[in-house]
Amino acid sequence: MFDVVVVGAGPTGLACGIELKKRGLNAVLIDKGCVVNSLYNYPTHMTFFTTPELLEIGDIPMTSLNEKPVRTEALKYYRRVADHYGLTIRQYERVLRLDGSDGAFVARTVDRDGVGHEYPARKVILATGYYDRPNLLNVPGEDLAKVIHYYKEPHPYYDHDVLVVGAKNSAAIAALELFWTGARVTMVHRGEGIHNNVKYWIKPNIENRIKCGEVKAFFRSSVKEIRRDDVTLSTPGGEVTIKNDFVFAMTGYHPDLDFLAAHGIRLDPSTQRPYTNPETLESDTKGIYLAGVIVAGMHTNEIFIENGRFHGAQIAAAVERALA
User: Angle at the Cα of 217 (from 212 to 223), degrees rounded to 5?
Assistant: First the structure.
């Protein structure tokens, strides 16, 4: 019997595990991927938009060669933190469901070999993030293998016709890197132009590439259909069909709200935010706490590592009181 099962081993899940261990509570962290799986799936050469100290957890300093850390530095840091605290982590296990109730939960999982496991626990913390569930285009052909929802690196797309859907940071970075690597890049976006929140050192760069015609762009437009060799776009001037080898649908991601609802956790109808106690972050289902970005529902731009990491101490203190 564990005191707590933490579902998710990202930075917020690790922060929860650390704070529970500091309080002498026995916790197991379970993740369907590797430790900090979302960060692992970020673009290979990604640079964070924040400084190292804002990514720190467990009072362990983070250092980087430059002002802003890169993906490989973050992965190394979180591995080091997990080792330092000796956290119990089960990787590559998917939590299928939570049975039982407060004080007597059972997390039922399946590993990558299809073997089932059970983890009894008195409390549960859900720190599942949102990066694993992409927002779909919902157009014919989206299920083709050439449609990609996660941009990793540009090399495999050299000398290919590539469509990037979206105009926020991830789309702008992907479009630039693909162009620099020799892909023929077209962007399509429903809005009037590159999003205003794109980082100040990226926005003028992609806009200049579009202005001089090096990257083609269709604004106030959308994807209508994806086929093996081309894509049809709906534009203000009518339908346009362009040659295409790969589609990067950089349309964002969302939390697994169905999993929350299946366990009795109510959502605000307008925002899809789960109802939680603001002091303890306990959900409507007694004994189940929410940590990290899932607290924000569909407003995934409100909670990041920088502020979600503090949920660990908040929840651990509440769990300690509840189990006293």
Answer: 170
Q: How far apart are CA 276 and CA 90, in angstroms?
A: 27
pTM above 0.85, yes or no: yes
Domain ranges within the chain, ordered by starting residue:
2-133+253-323, 147-249
Burial of 30 (0-12, 13-18, 19+ CB in 10 A): buried
In CATH, which superfamily holds the domain spanning 147-249?
A: FAD/NAD(P)-binding domain (3.50.50.60)
What strand order describes the sheet that includes 230-235? 222-226, 230-235, 238-243
Side-chain-side CA neighbours of 162 within 13 Å: the count stands at 29
* Per-residue pLDDT band at 299 (split at 50, 70, 90): low
Q: What CA dihedral angle connects 247, 36, 44 and 213, to 10 degrees? A: 40
In degrees and rounded to multiples of 5, residue 168 shows phi and psi of: -95, -165
Beta strands 147-148 and 104-111: pairing type? unpaired
Please name the helix (run of DSSP H) or strand (run of DSSP E) that holds residue 13, with its range, or none.
helix 11-22
Phi, psi of 157 (to 5 degrees): -110, 10
* 143 residue type, one letter: D
Q: Write out pLDDT tens, residues 148-203.
A: 999 999 999 999 999 999 999 999 999 999 999 999 999 999 999 999 989 888 99
- Whether 147-249 and 2-133+253-323 are alike in CATH topology: the answer is yes
The rounded distance, in Å, linking the Cα atoms of 15 and 281 is 15
- Using CB atoms within 10 Å of the CB of residue 111, give its burial: 0 to 12 exposed, 13 to 18 middle, 19+ buried: middle
State the architecture of 2-133+253-323 in CATH terms. 3-Layer(bba) Sandwich (3.50)
